């Protein structure tokens, strides 16, 4: 956990620099227009040039990051920041300044787009929301510190705008050093390129433990986009409680589950007919079944989280089911390389680094070795308190001490199911089971119901099964990922639904009023008499506005800290549905305060309170969560390009809102502008309630599989309705 947290903190320096730049240009432009005698159009262009640069770089950042990796793009971002800072420090004329601002925009665009993606791909699912709120915190912290610096410089006899802007190059040097010498590459990206050993080493560093084979297996399964994914249900009970007529091996539908201790086993029997759990899985929770226009995805995700709601548990009764990434050979058939590797690596299941010049290509070595049992259909199952899932007698796929979350994160456990195809000793059974979390295993003769996501193994190759009678039927991860066509992947039903969620929430966030309130804040605080108080202290008007802005950003920091605390407990969807009504009330109060005459003092007090509440509430929910969601809901293979699409929409809407605000103010006034923002917030709440699922505590690959299943269910439901 500490490794992932430190990596996330280092990555978010890019967002710190974005916040720093936003504040410094807002202060420096006051002095730039005086020295260079600029008109309003050129002044606006200087400020907007970074937006233009961010928009331009975003159009290609996702595709390039999927090609060369996340880390090189973050290094490039730090270089753009550093170079732009040096050029702004020099800037002999406005044209050079515009060029520097464009380069600065390139750095901002890369950081804003890729830092949330990078954090999501490196963070454990249990604290992914907390770590992905860090960009909001560091961005606001950067703005606060920059405004403090500008305020101090504004008290000098002749403030230097070049120095204000050029200071950016100093923290960008730290960012460059950390990206080059400290930040690892995303393990999920490494898996897409087939660099399994490097991905394993990175995961060990991030998780602080040696055994990361369970998460490695999950990452490989994440290479698939779309595919046939379905929900299956099981009744699980102790094997020794079954009668003779229920002997599991007498019925091909029974699956034997093995615990880590000798003699400890259960049997999973498929559920036939419509069970209570299937109704929940297919139609959503009881509370939402009758809600008109409710997306099945929302209810499907909701059914996961409502199983164990206490203390914000990340664990679920529903457990996803991914494919095995190896096939099991018949025990009495000798395969020298397989057996030698198994003896050497004892359960890590990775190719011996010394045994092959290119270990990543050694497909004879399975990622996770088969337990040395018969070829009967079986599945490993973790003990309730140890969470140890044995794939072989002396090795474990996942392990943790009592009370710790083990497996693939967030209480989700990964296991496999094998079957023997007649006439071929290789596994041909698709799918694998991810078990219920620790504490839910049946004990004392109890039986429980559980569900699984079942999908075709990502590396399972029917062609290899036909070619080789013995050995693993695996395709190389890079080859598997390379088969995915980008356009076809974007048109997959699950990906399309995820894009609707991501693009929709980015558009609505930009039109929800944050830019208008930021624009109006200095005027509101001046009306409240803050400028008069500061002028009595001998502080000029420009310095007063900088100090007011610093105070505004300072107020955001504790609110963001609260959001970090609850992001993985209450969840993203719950925070949005709770905080947006507060935004609506604040905006409506601002409209009322501007429509009716309550007197100068009352108006100033009402406006100030509403603005402070709006800011603090916005950064707790609607500020960070859209970027968090966009970094979670897309498959690994197309995550970069999908996030770039959402970020491009964000920047375009940002430009539209920024440049239409003065026009709207002059045409419909403050009351009209805030009224429109309030209506957009209402629309946002409805959109989130109907379309945005809860993703807290779920591994990224589980989230994307759920989107695929939900899209399939929605399509099936639509066909039935027709």
From TrEMBL:
A Pfam family of this chain: Sugar_tr
Entry GO terms, CC: plant-type vacuole membrane
UniProt similarity note: Belongs to the major facilitator superfamily. Sugar transporter (TC 2.A.1.1) family.
Domain (Major facilitator superfamily (MFS) profile): residue spans on this chain: 7-696
Identification of the protein by name: Monosaccharide-sensing protein 2
Example of a GO MF term: transmembrane transporter activity
Residue intervals passing through the bilayer: 38-60, 72-90, 96-119, 140-157, 163-183, 544-563, 575-596, 602-620, 641-661, 667-690
Listed InterPro entries: MFS_dom, MFS_sugar_transport-like, MFS_trans_sf, Myo-inositol_Transporter, Sugar/inositol_transpt, Sugar_transporter_CS
PROSITE patterns the record matches: MFS (PS50850), SUGAR_TRANSPORT_1 (PS00216), SUGAR_TRANSPORT_2 (PS00217)
UniProt main location, coarse: membrane
Organism whose genome encodes this protein: Sesamum calycinum
SUPFAM superfamilies xref list: MFS general substrate transporter
Keyword Phosphoprotein annotated: yes
Bilayer topology term: Multi-pass membrane protein
Entry keywords, A to Z: Membrane, Phosphoprotein, Sugar transport, Transmembrane, Transmembrane helix, Transport, Vacuole
Subcellular location: Vacuole membrane
Reactions mediated catalytically: D-glucose(out) + H(+)(in) = D-glucose(in) + H(+)(out); sucrose(out) + H(+)(in) = sucrose(in) + H(+)(out)
Residues covered by region (Disordered): 337-366
């Amino acid at each position: 956990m500490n490794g992932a947290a430190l990596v996330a903190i280092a990555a978010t320096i890019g967002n710190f620099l974005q916040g720093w730049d936003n504040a410094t240009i807002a202060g420096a432009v006051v002095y730039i227009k005086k020295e260079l005698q600029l008109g309003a159009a050129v002044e606006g262009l200087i400020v907007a040039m970074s937006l233009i640069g961010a928009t331009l770089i975003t159009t290609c950042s996702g595709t390039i990051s999927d090609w060369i990796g996340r880390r090189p793009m973050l290094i490039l971002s730090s270089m753009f920041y550093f170079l732009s800072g040096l050029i702004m420090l020099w800037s002999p004329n406005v044209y050079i300044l515009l060029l520097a601002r464009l380069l600065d925009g390139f750095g901002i665009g890369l950081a804003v787009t890729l830092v949330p993606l990078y954090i999501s791909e490196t963070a454990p699912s249990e604290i992914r929301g907390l770590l992905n709120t860090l960009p909001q915190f560091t961005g606001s912290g950067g703005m606060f510190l920059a405004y403090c610096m500008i305020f101090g410089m504004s008290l000098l006899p002749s403030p230097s705008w070049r120095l204000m802007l050029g200071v950016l190059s100093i923290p960008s040097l730290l960012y460059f050093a950390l990206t080059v010498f400290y930040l690892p590459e995303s393990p999920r990206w490494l898996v897409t390129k087939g660099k399994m050993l490097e991905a394993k080493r990175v995961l060990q560093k991030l998780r602080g433990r040696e055994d990361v084979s369970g998460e490695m297996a999950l990452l490989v399964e994440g290479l698939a986009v779309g595919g046939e994914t379905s929900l299956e249900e099981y009744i699980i009970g102790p094997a020794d409680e079954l009668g003779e007529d229920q002997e599991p091996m007498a019925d091909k539908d029974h699956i034997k589950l093995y615990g880590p201790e000798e003699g400890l086993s259960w049997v999973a029997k498929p559920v036939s007919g419509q069970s209570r759990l299937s109704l929940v899985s297919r139609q959503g929770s009881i509370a939402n079944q009758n809600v008109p226009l409710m997306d099945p995805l929302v209810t499907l995700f909701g059914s996961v989280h409502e199983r164990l709601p206490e203390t914000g548990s990340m664990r679920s009764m529903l457990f996803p089911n991914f494919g095995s990434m190896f096939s099991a050979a018949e025990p009495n058939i000798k395969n020298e390389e397989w057996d030698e590797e198994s003896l050497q690596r004892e359960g890590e299941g990775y190719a011996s680094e010394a045994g092959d010049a290119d270990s990543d290509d050694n497909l004879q070595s399975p990622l996770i070795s088969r337990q040395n049992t018969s070829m009967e259909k079986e599945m490993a199952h973790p003990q309730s308190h140890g969470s140890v899932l044995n794939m072989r007698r002396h090795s474990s796929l996942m392990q943790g001490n009592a009370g710790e979350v083990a497996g693939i994160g967030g209480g989700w456990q990964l296991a496999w199911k094998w079957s023997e195809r007649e006439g071929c000793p290789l596994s041909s059974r698709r799918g694998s089971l991810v078990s219920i979390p620790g504490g839910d295993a049946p004990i004392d003769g109890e039986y429980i119901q559980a569900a699984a996501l079942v999908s075709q193994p990502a590396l399972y190759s029917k062609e290899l099964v036909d070619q080789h009678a013995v050995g693993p039927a695996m395709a190389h991860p890079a080859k598997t990922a390379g088969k995915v066509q980008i356009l076809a992947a974007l048109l997959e039903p699950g990906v399309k639904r995820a894009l609707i969620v991501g693009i929709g929430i980015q558009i609505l966030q930009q039109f929800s009023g944050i830019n208008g309130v930021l624009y109006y804040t200095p005027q509101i605080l001046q009306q409240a008499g803050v400028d008069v108080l500061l002028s009595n202290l001998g502080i000029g008007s420009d310095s007063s506005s900088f100090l007011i802005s610093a105070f505004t950003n300072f107020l955001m920091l504790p609110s963001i800290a609260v959001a970090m605390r609850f992001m993985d407990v209450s969840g993203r969807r719950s925070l949005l549905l709770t905080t947006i009504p507060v935004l609506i009330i604040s905006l409506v109060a601002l409209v009322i305060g501007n429509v009716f005459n309550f007197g100068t003092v009352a108006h100033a007090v009402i406006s100030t309170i509403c603005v402070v509440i709006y800011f603090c509430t916005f950064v707790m929910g609607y500020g960070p969560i859209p970027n968090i969601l966009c970094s979670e809901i897309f498959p690994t293979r197309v995550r970069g390009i999908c996030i770039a699409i959402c970020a491009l929409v964000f920047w375009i809407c940002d430009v539209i809102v920024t440049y239409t605000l003065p026009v709207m103010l002059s045409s419909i006034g403050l009351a009209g502008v805030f009224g429109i923002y309030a209506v957009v917030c209402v629309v946002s709440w409805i959109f989130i309630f109907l379309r945005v699922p809860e993703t807290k505590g779920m591994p990224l690959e589980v989230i994307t599989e759920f989107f695929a299943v939900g899209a399939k269910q929605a399509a099936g439901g639509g066909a039935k309705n027709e």
